[in-house]
């Protein structure tokens, strides 16, 4: 496992895969550093192979640097253990350095955080400001309501000795109303002076299109109180600016005055050190200390991705003055003094604007700190649907809209009710104000929390995720060219995120779908061509690119996408819980609510690589999502025959529908989750009944029984093949299923589908009695040729894989004739100076990336 050093972070947790049969459930593991010294580690299983052997294990480490080696053995005990005491009215967690008291009811989540006998912070809670009306013209008097987070349930999920995890669930409450459910996890590591918070909010308010009344969030934050014990000149404020930059001030500044207290005194205050007795200063300063203002209030406000401001005032009721500003703030702050202080940070501060940090009343006995996930100084959170449908009242009219803007519109479907967002925060309890170097480490930990990682060699050796990737290989010019193209595509999208400003609380992590070369702009405002929402699996492309390379920049990009697509593009409450939304101008705008977007496959990689509990929640929530087919027919607008959803005869496709379902079931089975036995039965029964169809996967769909978990086997063969069927994770899931489950008929059914999608129409007709009709995405499907070739040793299929990869007739696909370059854009052609590759689309990028990676791994030795 590798890491550049945990630095100021509280610790790190990593997932490590093992070959089938290598270790059993009871196996323990030991960790050593590069010098062979034992490193304390806490280990637990997170997935099993079907034979019960360990597939993935998670390992929590409180400290470490460089390369760490994990082997079977007895783990070293930490010097300082995490302990959890549930005997009192609170849950008390000690890291050996700090102790936190977690509330089990009421509005206070963290009652106190202490270091030794000194209380550093207290009354940690959630705050929410609701604005019931929003006016586009004359604002008038804006009314707001304040809600507090009310705890309904607290669960201790881990109790040490290296890591403890506490989950807190509840809603925001005022009077008789409770809304905006939250789920928070608090993470504590042995020996750490800090803890981590993962905060998830689910939106369940009402915002009707074209109406100015509803539930508009004006501010959403996490708030703590900080006891202030030091003299005003020994109280320190730190605000993170650009990079590791810091505003370093005191509540009562004694620098820059007309009279000089002395160089040593000035330097000590700037460094955050306790000042010598004022009797030793220049008395012209000492005797006039009472005349120096005390600055108790500070605000860092980031209302866009490109600008922040810092201001301060002496106290409430007095005017603000500017204290500086810059482009992108780190989201870090500190308030405290020589006798102790509290540092805090919000990850992705500017990327997920509008964000804000407040320090209030630092001149009093108790300061107040608020980390605003949504700044109250920004425009209210407006999630109303963006247009009126323009006469699209009937299905035929809606299909005409689809034909022009590629948006699947339906009244009432463009709702944000049930979408969610997860944020990460870090907190430190200090015995005194840290020095600049230590704070710079904390800033870095907020910006990019260290992440231990299993190296690509281990991922390949373990044979996980269907054995569909290998390490980069530039041994021939043809392979090197493909590697260059893969690098080009990732770099281009990474640069486009910056150039096009794909940032914001609800947007960061996603990318756009299609490009408009006439405007030199992505189609951000054109119906279904705007936000991508996992269309054709860019999530998978990124995770496969990371797993084969181990590149940190790809990991962070894929991580942000997983956090976004798993939360914002999927419904977690309401009648569509368990379904995701097709690509559109808003992440929830399109009326196509489908399994293919909620697909657990897109979350599996991040979960198994990091053991992230929140993503684990998302995957577990999908286990019963087959029930959603009773609520909404995914092909209701194009179905020609009469159809009424029937619990025992649901029409479900073997492609985008089943791939999402079986992914959730397989994951629950692997994890041995609460419903794993049911999930296992669903995996096996659906595999069996797909394989039993007259034409296997080519049959396309069948009637599914929710009670038995089986497809009805059609009596007559039919051909139901779509170019989309396998492009939402089915290729990857079938490879995993075949690798884990010995079911020859299923394997043969899948290999047949792989053999014949890219076959000639004559070959398809000879095999199935009918050809597959007009198809697309041949390059993306070349990886199915490669898979079948690798499984059967068929040299002709291997050759066809590369032929289709290079020479697809599909105009969406890249050709080797493409110049693989970008062109410069500058004013007045574009809003900002940058670059464009007008030939790039995200559909084609994702499929090129997956086909290139998998073809190289499967039939790289058969390249022409």
From TrEMBL:
Residues 449-863 form the PcRGLX/YetA-like C-terminal alpha/alpha toroid domain. Pfam families: PcRGLX_1st, PcRGLX_2nd, PcRGLX_3rd. Residues 9-66 form the PcRGLX/YetA-like N-terminal RIFT barrel domain. Residues 82-442 form the PcRGLX/YetA-like central beta-sandwich domain. InterPro entries: PcRGLX/YetA-like, PcRGLX/YetA_2nd, PcRGLX/YetA_3rd, PcRGLX_1st. This is Tat pathway signal sequence domain protein. It comes from Streptomyces viridochromogenes (strain DSM 40736 / JCM 4977 / BCRC 1201 / Tue 494). The lineage of its organism: Bacteria, Bacillati, Actinomycetota, Actinomycetes, Kitasatosporales.
